[in-house]
Known about the structure:
The protein is built from eight helices and eight strands; from the N terminus they run ββαβααβαβαβαβαβα. The chain is α/β, with parallel strands linked by helices. Helix 3 packs parallel to helix 8.
Amino acid sequence: MDERNGLAVPRTLEEVCDPGRLALLVYDMQAGVLGQIGDRDRVVDRVVEVLGAARAAGVRTVFLRHVTLPTALMGTGQLRMWRSWQRAGGAAEVVSAFPPDAGQTQLVPELRPTDREAVLDKVTMSAFEGTWLDIVLRDCGITAVALVGVATEIGIEPTARHAADLGYIPVVVTDACGAGDPEAAERALAGLRFAGDSLLTTTEEFRSALSGQRPRVQE
């Protein structure tokens, strides 16, 4: 651990992965989203593996879901985005693709939150924008966030960048992330590597970093 001005500055993944100061963010592992991912089963298996390691170490975990508003409440930005994603001819053709109670909006059955975990609904790409996530993590003394899920190029990258801007250390478990566009995902990861404020790791390395830690006391 590096030190300056009374601050402990982590150097290694192991130092970042203190279970008491790390949170796991499971990004958009929803039925309708994973249906668009070519290697869905591989991604689910890796996320389940990471989640198991995090639970064993007592890491606080939040599941994220992307939801859509009724079209009457969609503003200009939402209508433009969904017009593009739905390849609609105009804003009048946009439909609400992920209502909160719809089947495609639900987390896949392989991932069932426990009563110690929370599900956060959002309408943005960054999990921190307009949500309760930052205030809750800060209140719990969290200093680093591990990211898994889908999609790397759509939500993982902006959440990692936003986390870094807020002062967290983002840890992207790259092989536990999926992509709708693999080339775009590689560009996103390359950008994170270049920026240097995120740690990019693998499921095996992440599990190893957690395995040597003392589990946080569960209440």
